[in-house]
Amino acid sequence: MRVLGIETSCDETGIALYDDSLGLMADLLYSQIDVHKAYGGVVPELASRDHIRKCLPMIDQILTETETKPDQIDAIAFTEGPGLIGALLVGASIAKSLALAWNIPAIGIHHMEGHLQATQLTETPTQYPFVALLVSGGHTQLMACSQPGEYEILGESMDDAAGEAFDKVAKMLGLGYPGGPQVASLATQGAKDRFHFPRPMTQKPGLNFSFSGLKTHTMNTLRALKDPSDQDRADIARAFEEAVVETIKIKCTRALAQTGYPTLVLAGGVSANTRLRASLQTLSQTLKIEVSYPDLKFCTDNGAMIAIAGLLRRSQWQRDNHEIIARPRWPMTELQGLAT
Ligand code: KG4
Ligand code: ZN
Fold it and tell me: Looking at the chain, which terminus has fewer C-beta neighbours within 10 angstroms, N or C?
């Protein structure tokens, strides 16, 4: 069973071919960073146009490199949502058109389910049930996953997503876009105990997050320094990163205790953060639970995670539905369960 995956939800065009017996056959990623960096963030219209330019040539390249003929592909999986509407529509239109031309089914995938499946690309399959920590540019959620395709929200951010907070703090610190990796890199130069930032919403019980107060605290600390040096900025980056990581760790501990589940699965761009990975690794030893991370290259958006999620949802493949749907907002809890 071979699935072509197409990811176009935001600022990365990801195309991949996954085969259930051969594994990941090819995986191409084109990042639009150069298109958007002059604007300090993603410009939706430019993103859509760039996906249009890149998608078909990348699909062609993958077919050529893997010597695959269309009749060897069993289905096309594409990101149906959530994401930028124009960007999603590009992927959806191309996927549905090719599926019609090649007479194969297409399946619309939830982007965050794709992120969650990314761990399966490199590790042995994660056993259910598990707690999922989804941390990306648009999401910060803790989910209870009792069986394939079943998601119950345990907690989520009331305001900014973790990645969004990283990106905004990067701007404050005069760093470029995308900000998360740059804040993380600057934080490695920061002093450990110079600043102690608040761990939001950890004093009271509950699994929700809020990062906007932490952002304001970061801004106030920076302003109080008047003419901050490079070292000041690095110290602030470190304090901010430590606050985010510890907050997430506290909430994960609670979610694991509340569910009694033995495994934590990380997903989304922020799961590439070294301090977060190390902190949850320590937690796994303390609590004697399993922690499963995607390979670094599959933490941020990619086509491979969409292709493998397409395989997970093979029972929903549709050959004769030609409607092109994009869902900019799409709660994961609306997904159909897949338990047999
Ligand atoms: O999953 P993703 O590629 O796209 C979305 O679905 O949003 O996540 C992108 C987010 C960005 O906010 C980026 O700054 C953040 O993930 N990110 C990181 C790191 N790498 C990416 N945040 C902190 N540390 C990192 N190493
Ligand atoms: Zn993503």
Answer: C
